[in-house]
Amino acid sequence: METPRRSGPIPVIQQLPVQQPQVDPNQERKERKINTLLSRFTEQGVYDENFAEYEESSCCICLEDFKTAVQGTVGITKVKRCGHMFHTACIKSWLTSSKTILTKDPRCPLCNLSIKEAG
Ligand SMILES: [Zn+2]
Ligand SMILES: [Zn+2]
Protein backbone atom coordinates (compact mmCIF):
# COMPACT_ATOMS: atom_id res chain seq x y z
CA MET A 1 0.00 0.00 0.00
CA GLU A 2 1.26 3.35 -0.95
CA THR A 3 1.20 6.22 1.51
CA PRO A 4 0.49 9.57 -0.03
CA ARG A 5 3.48 11.82 0.07
CA ARG A 6 3.97 15.44 -0.54
CA SER A 7 5.83 15.87 -3.70
CA GLY A 8 8.81 18.06 -4.17
CA PRO A 9 11.80 18.64 -1.99
CA ILE A 10 11.41 20.08 1.47
CA PRO A 11 12.58 23.64 1.28
CA VAL A 12 15.77 24.15 3.20
CA ILE A 13 16.64 27.57 4.40
CA GLN A 14 20.10 28.21 3.17
CA GLN A 15 22.23 30.16 5.50
CA LEU A 16 24.17 32.77 3.74
CA PRO A 17 27.83 32.80 4.66
CA VAL A 18 28.51 35.58 7.08
CA GLN A 19 30.90 38.11 5.74
CA GLN A 20 33.79 38.20 8.11
CA PRO A 21 35.52 41.51 8.33
CA GLN A 22 39.23 41.39 7.76
CA VAL A 23 40.87 40.87 11.11
CA ASP A 24 44.38 41.83 11.89
CA PRO A 25 45.94 38.64 13.38
CA ASN A 26 47.60 40.71 16.05
CA GLN A 27 44.22 42.12 16.94
CA GLU A 28 42.78 38.63 17.23
CA ARG A 29 45.58 37.59 19.50
CA LYS A 30 44.98 40.63 21.66
CA GLU A 31 41.28 39.91 21.85
CA ARG A 32 41.90 36.36 22.97
CA LYS A 33 44.23 37.59 25.68
CA ILE A 34 41.73 40.17 26.77
CA ASN A 35 38.93 37.65 27.00
CA THR A 36 41.09 35.28 29.04
CA LEU A 37 42.17 38.11 31.28
CA LEU A 38 38.65 39.36 31.83
CA SER A 39 37.30 35.92 32.62
CA ARG A 40 40.02 35.26 35.16
CA PHE A 41 40.50 38.56 36.89
CA THR A 42 37.22 40.38 36.55
CA GLU A 43 33.60 39.77 37.28
CA GLN A 44 31.17 40.12 34.45
CA GLY A 45 27.65 41.27 34.94
CA VAL A 46 24.93 43.34 33.45
CA TYR A 47 23.49 46.55 34.68
CA ASP A 48 20.39 45.92 36.78
CA GLU A 49 18.80 46.97 40.07
CA ASN A 50 21.49 45.28 42.11
CA PHE A 51 23.94 47.54 40.48
CA ALA A 52 22.86 50.31 42.84
CA GLU A 53 24.88 48.59 45.55
CA TYR A 54 28.05 49.34 43.73
CA GLU A 55 29.94 52.44 44.66
CA GLU A 56 30.81 53.78 41.31
CA SER A 57 28.19 55.49 39.31
CA SER A 58 30.01 56.08 36.08
CA CYS A 59 32.50 54.48 33.77
CA CYS A 60 35.81 56.33 33.86
CA ILE A 61 36.61 55.38 30.29
CA CYS A 62 33.63 56.90 28.51
CA LEU A 63 32.56 59.00 31.53
CA GLU A 64 29.00 57.89 31.01
CA ASP A 65 26.78 57.37 34.02
CA PHE A 66 25.94 53.68 34.44
CA LYS A 67 22.40 54.66 35.30
CA THR A 68 21.75 55.90 31.80
CA ALA A 69 22.20 52.33 30.57
CA VAL A 70 19.21 50.22 29.77
CA GLN A 71 18.82 47.65 32.51
CA GLY A 72 20.00 44.15 31.77
CA THR A 73 21.53 45.02 28.44
CA VAL A 74 24.83 46.67 29.20
CA GLY A 75 27.74 44.48 30.16
CA ILE A 76 29.70 45.62 33.17
CA THR A 77 33.15 44.45 34.10
CA LYS A 78 34.42 44.68 37.64
CA VAL A 79 38.12 44.30 38.33
CA LYS A 80 38.38 41.83 41.21
CA ARG A 81 41.51 43.31 42.75
CA CYS A 82 40.42 46.91 43.07
CA GLY A 83 36.68 46.68 42.56
CA HIS A 84 36.64 49.31 39.84
CA MET A 85 33.98 48.95 37.23
CA PHE A 86 33.71 49.77 33.59
CA HIS A 87 31.47 49.01 30.71
CA THR A 88 32.71 45.73 29.31
CA ALA A 89 32.92 47.25 25.85
CA CYS A 90 34.91 50.19 27.20
CA ILE A 91 37.50 48.18 29.09
CA LYS A 92 37.88 45.85 26.13
CA SER A 93 38.61 48.65 23.75
CA TRP A 94 40.81 50.31 26.34
CA LEU A 95 42.84 47.13 26.74
CA THR A 96 42.93 46.65 22.99
CA SER A 97 44.40 50.08 22.42
CA SER A 98 46.70 49.71 25.36
CA LYS A 99 50.09 48.07 24.93
CA THR A 100 50.01 46.66 28.45
CA ILE A 101 47.98 43.64 27.36
CA LEU A 102 50.92 42.39 25.34
CA THR A 103 53.46 43.13 28.02
CA LYS A 104 51.53 40.84 30.37
CA ASP A 105 50.89 43.59 32.83
CA PRO A 106 47.54 45.10 32.07
CA ARG A 107 46.44 47.70 34.54
CA CYS A 108 43.20 49.14 35.76
CA PRO A 109 42.49 52.30 33.75
CA LEU A 110 41.32 54.05 36.88
CA CYS A 111 43.83 53.27 39.62
CA ASN A 112 46.66 51.77 37.57
CA LEU A 113 46.73 48.67 39.74
CA SER A 114 47.81 45.55 37.89
CA ILE A 115 44.67 43.67 36.99
CA LYS A 116 46.38 40.36 37.44
CA GLU A 117 46.77 39.04 40.91
CA ALA A 118 50.32 38.95 42.13
CA GLY A 119 51.79 35.47 42.32
ZN1 LIG B 1 32.06 53.22 29.47
ZN1 LIG C 1 41.16 50.08 39.80
TrEMBL record:
Keyword Protein biosynthesis attached: no
Keywords: Metal-binding, Zinc, Zinc-finger
Pfam families: zf-RING_2
Domain RING-type per the UniProt entry, residue ranges: 59-112
GO MF annotation terms: zinc ion binding
Record carries keyword Zinc: yes
Protein name per the record: RING-type domain-containing protein
Organism, scientific name: Halteria grandinella
